[in-house]
């Protein structure tokens, strides 16, 4: 049977979470889950993740994987919360260790924090094949936005592209975060756009222009014909010049600082201090 995919949009962060499965009563994967976070109060809640839980339970699904496309800078991961209630392995690309090394230094994390990816249950090697029940899946390494970005090819017909590509009228991901590289992103996008034209591409975010509702699904053909940043005919040098210039004028994501220091821990919050309270750090004058 072909893969089924259910999308959940978190409007606050413009993030899509996906549940991928083959049939009711079978295994599934949850991709890029969201833990709601209010930066004004410093409070978290599970409203968005609970929608995913309700769907999983309604369809009697068994969570096999909790997949992250990368360490997100725009939302906190709900993977540990989902694992506690539903099971599954939290997985990300093996290059997360590079991201952890950068941000351990930036946030001066506790000496015990390891930069080997061991906070995650599984680290995917580039092009590693795995399964969601009977569905064949492959972890595609697509660096550029960050060194650890992964896209997930499912059933040889659809790809969860993470932050590598956006909808054609929005373009592509920024590359100015630590470890980002516009030339790597260009190569990663051409890798994805080399798949057959009918291949479905599910984006992690959509920031629709005025007058269009948010969407999550496009195709290789649509991207090659109409992506405003990387349509056919745009060469590497032109893309790098555009992306570098554009990134220089972008502000930092609102949740960058809280999100990264949680997401490099596989979504776990920092250890509580001696008073029993968990704190997030805000490094001053560093970014």
TrEMBL record:
Gene3D superfamilies associated with the record: Ribonuclease Z/Hydroxyacylglutathione hydrolase-like
Keyword entries, A-Z: Hydrolase, Metal-binding
Domain of life: Bacteria
Domain Metallo-beta-lactamase: 14-205
SUPFAM superfamilies (UniProt xref): Metallo-hydrolase/oxidoreductase
Record's keyword annotation contains NAD: no
GO biological process, one term: hydrogen sulfide metabolic process
InterPro entries, sorted: Metallo-B-lactamas, Mito_Persulfide_Diox, POD-like_MBL-fold, RibonucZ/Hydroxyglut_hydro
Any one GO MF annotation of this record: hydrolase activity
Pfam families: Lactamase_B
Protein name: MBL fold metallo-hydrolase
Organism: Pseudomonas aylmerensis
Source taxonomy: Bacteria, Pseudomonadati, Pseudomonadota, Gammaproteobacteria, Pseudomonadales
């Amino acid at each position: 049977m072909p893969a089924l995919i259910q999308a959940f949009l978190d409007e606050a962060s413009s993030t899509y979470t996906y549940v991928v499965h083959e049939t009711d009563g079978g295994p599934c994967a949850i991709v890029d889950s969201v833990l709601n976070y209010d930066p004004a109060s410093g409070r978290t809640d599970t409203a968005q993740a609970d929608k995913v839980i309700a769907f999983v339970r309604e369809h009697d699904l068994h969570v096999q994987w909790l997949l992250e496309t990368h360490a997100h800078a725009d939302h906190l991961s709900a993977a540990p919360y989902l694992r506690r209630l539903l099971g599954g392995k939290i997985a990300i690309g093996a290059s997360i260790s590079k991201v952890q090394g950068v941000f351990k230094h930036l946030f001066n994390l506790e000496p015990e924090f390891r930069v080997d990816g061991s906070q995650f249950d599984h680290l995917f090697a580039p092009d590693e094949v795995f399964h969601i029940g009977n569905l064949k899946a492959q972890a595609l390494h697509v660096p550029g936005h960050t060194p650890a970005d992964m896209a997930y090819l499912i059933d040889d017909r659809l790809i969860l592209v993470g932050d590598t590509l956006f909808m054609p009228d929005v373009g592509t991901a920024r590359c100015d975060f630590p470890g980002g590289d516009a030339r790597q992103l260009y190569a990663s996008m051409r890798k994805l756009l080399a798949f057959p034209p009918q291949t479905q591409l599910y984006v992690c975010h959509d920031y629709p222009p005025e007058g269009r509702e948010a969407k999550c699904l496009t195709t290789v053909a649509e991207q090659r014909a109409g992506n405003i940043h990387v349509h056919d005919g745009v060469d590497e040098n032109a893309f790098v010049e555009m992306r570098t210039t554009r990134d220089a004028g972008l502000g930092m994501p609102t949740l960058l600082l809280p999100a990264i220091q949680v997401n490099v821990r596989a979504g776990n919050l920092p250890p509580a201090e001696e008073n029993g309270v968990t704190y997030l750090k805000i490094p001053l004058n560093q970014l």
